[in-house]
Amino acid sequence: MKRSRGGRIAWRLCGALVVILGVTFLTFLLAYLSPADAAISWFADRGIYPSEEELIAKRAELGVDRPFFEQYLSWMWGLCHGDLGESLRNGAPVADTLMEALPFTLALTAVSLVMTLVVSIPLGLLCARYRDSAYDQFMRFITYLFNALPNFFIALLMLYLLCVRLGWFSVIPTYDFKGIFMPSVALALPLSAWYIRQVRALALGQINAGYVSGLRARGVSETRILVKHVLRNLAVPLLTLVGISLGSLLGGAVIVENIFGWPGVGGVSVLAIGHRDYIVIQAYALLMAIVFLIVNALVDFSYRFIDPRVRKRG
Amino acid sequence: MASRRTRTKEERHFIVIAAVTLLFILAAAIVPVVMPFDPNFTDLTKSQLPPGTEGYPLGTDKLGRDVLIRTLAGAQESVLIALAVVAIVLVLGTAVGMIGGYYGGPVDAVVSKVVTVFQAFPSFVLAVAIAGILGQGVINMILAIAFVYWTTFARLARSLTITLKESGSVRAAWVCGASPFAILTKYILPNVSAELIITAALSIGEVILTMAGLSFLGLGPARPTNEWGAMMSDARSDMLTAPWCMAAPGVALFISVVIFNLFGDILRDMLDRRGSMMVEGGTNKAKSSRTRKGRRRSMKEGKRKGLVGVVATLALTCALAFCLAGCSGGDKPSSAEGGSSLTIGSTAYFEEESLDPALTWWSATSYGFCETPMKLSDDSEPEPWLAESVANVDDYTWTITMKEGITFSNGEPVTGEAVKACLERTFELNQRARENLDVESIEADGQVVTIKTREAAPDFESLVTNPMLFNIYYVGEGVDYVKAPIGTGPFVVKELIPGGTLTLVKNENYWDGDVALDQVTFKKFDDDDAMNLALMNGEIDAIEGPSAAGYAQFNGKDGFQTIYSETSRVDFLRLNMETSEVMKNPAVRTAVAFCVDREGYSNVITGGMQEANWGVYSEAVAYGGTEGFNLTVDEFSVEKAAQVLEDAGIVDTDGDGIRELDGKPLTVTITTCSDYPQFVYLCDDLQSKMAQAGMKLNVQLLDYWLLDKETWMNSGTDISIDSYLMAPTGDPQYFVGLCFVSNSSDNFGGYSNPQVDALFNDLKNEFDLDARGDIARQISQIELDDCAFIFFSAAKTTIIARDGVNGLVTSPSEFYVVTPTTSVA
Q1: Does A294 lie in the same domain as A174?
Q2: Cα(A186)–Cα(A248) distance, rounded to whole angstroms?
């Protein structure tokens, strides 16, 4: 199984292509299996009373009377041209609607990810530094707490405390840092709880490594070892965590955006669910998968910049 | 062996936690079944009792249901379903993964690619998409979660199997000719099961949370449900008045997730230890003692220095809090700034997408950018507005004389010609306008507009006040009717942001004096709770049409005022008279009518914002009320409902608590829009009351209203809940022609009675007001007898505003909200 470098890259690209095809196929299949009749929904959402002929004509126009593979191919053809179909609810091009909302979701995800890292890396390292101390036990309790609370509960509590009781934030979202703060914190809290445990475990895994013993023997302080040396070695596993946790952020955004009125794709999808607008739901799932795939590809790719060992190998 | 060594600390912990978990699961399985109370039993006289009330340790919810009992009952749906889902994905995922791992080659390639494809989706996104496309329901929810989680197990099982495949025992079995099935089940499965079971145990908590999240979005089990996520979603609107309704299921959810997470952790520690003991054998003892000693040392050191950690955490928290306080900066957006800007919120009435005065006519006068020739006074009498007078030439001809010197906001004069152009456009586009007035021709001469009709129009004077037909707006080249229609009103449309913000500014050229406000903003909220919080926070100044929760929160509270007026708006049930066999039975219709708790709905569910209605039209119109009518149903009584069914021979023959009609269980479906919480509450209450009378009610919640007959019929419903302004101009003809006459435009339930059709024809030709009222009363009596509609509660138009807002109006017609004199202080 020895391949040249070019061959290896081609092989990986091939694999990625298969996954992308699979993702499109799965999303299409989802919508295809939907029990709702697209033609009836189309008329219903416009308050029109269609005759049987109109329904048949609409089905033909929407293309839902054609065989499965033909529909799939034509949908793929549209997809390649950036056309995700039209919303059954209001006839707006789905791609436009989602692309308008996507920056909001990406901003929300990015801000909460940064918050999570800023909070959890120092706290997690402290847990490792003072493992089994009162502090570590306390953090264990806190992280357990946030891991077991549903994110909508946290979001509602925040809304109640910070907006109503303390009046620090407005309920109507503003589209600036202040507006993004609340939903990001609501997303970041449960994720930080998970990260703190992970950072602690990863740091403890390094503590018995040879280089740490060496540093200890040279009299370097524990804190300095953790911050200067262990943290650098945590970069790669942390990056992997970032890739994985992005999925939970994108998922959590559905509920959090809904509660705080943040105009991201989560809100669009919830509206679409209410109307059984499966064209939008389908496009939403596909878009999220693509974002998720791209970020993980970037994460894979960036290992070679962060970790000299990977760079040397290949 | 166990007798030889004492149990380690971990083992003791494990025994305790495993026992707790087992007890918990048993309780979740058994308690809801043996509990002698019905968790869905509603009692509107015991609404929102706080925790600690006698007999209700955790209080009651809005409908008087016991929160403790509901939460206990919810354990079954929340916990047991999660366990079932985990069991399903464990078995399926393991099977697929082991097969892929064992056979390798193309089989494995397919398995691993499919797993990769599923894992390419963020897990909650995929669950939402699957459940969203399949729709609400417990099975769909299970499917959605199973599709997401099976990959975890498939992947793990596959990689473990690949490792084990090369082990000696498996090779030996293969050499001896064991079948692949035997190898997989006898040699591989026992060795991979520990790891898989740990993963399964650790994912139970996550599955419970995912399920709650789906339920919270309305994708959980159908009503009646006590699933915790759904309970919390319902309790959201009463978060401020009855927080215990949300806290109880929230805490239950939390406790169960903690229990399963603890169990998973301890199980992992246990099994990992066993595994390492087996592998490492003798060396293990020495090693563990070493680590234990090491740990004790580090703990000592840790306790001393743990303080540093606590200080650092506190510092970080403080820094965050400062950052938070800093960016909040205290510059709360205050709409009162400048003293002349007003923001009004609503969840229902503001049209999001279009302002066209011909089509979305109801917005034009209430938002103050259009006016009509005549205006309705507070006692529903037409009085001149843009017109000087309206005169009757003969039965088929009317003239409207417009006032001189009025201009549209773009400076064009309001002439007879301009009015003619406007009316012609409206009547061409708006079918409901045509149904109300059959116009033959419109002529203009100076300021006089002459309208000829094909049929007599005795209600013409009141029609002229109706914006549905007579919004006066500028028709000309380049006008954007959808985004920026041009009218004569005190305000001019400045901007419409689809999705819900409409901004209007003062009309500098207003014909009738100066306009007090510089700017009015109407904001549509998708979420009622957010709107109430926004009013509380001072981000908006008023709420038009508050929900019951909002009303309860602000009515009579310091700093807020309630403005309301009686209207002809009535909430009613519309029964399916065309395709529903059940509803065609008059006894069933009467029984349903007896089960509607009209007082309870009006006083408790809407918090006193509405009044019980026993007739057809509300008391707000002269021919309404109950006086002089012969009421079949004049009280709320489950016993009478049962009696009516009993008398009609509809009895429970198979003893399941549900009566049979023509050999089939008497099942009724009710549909409403989930945007309107008070209707959802009514459904839950009706479900409980009808169950007591021996009828099963299914509740179907949609995110939209059934606004046309085809959609209505396709929803497969027997009953829908609607709310109509039955006599916007005070005249009865409007609603009769809309809903009662055979095949009329809003007669979705397919009701038809030739007597009503004949009386409607009389009404169309009757000019005398008293005689029109009499005909309306005759029609009302027939409706009461037929019981195809159940008019159960009369609404008021209500506005809640903060103190300092003056001159907002409510009117019986709901046509007017802001006026030139509306101001803020």
Answers
A1: yes
A2: 13
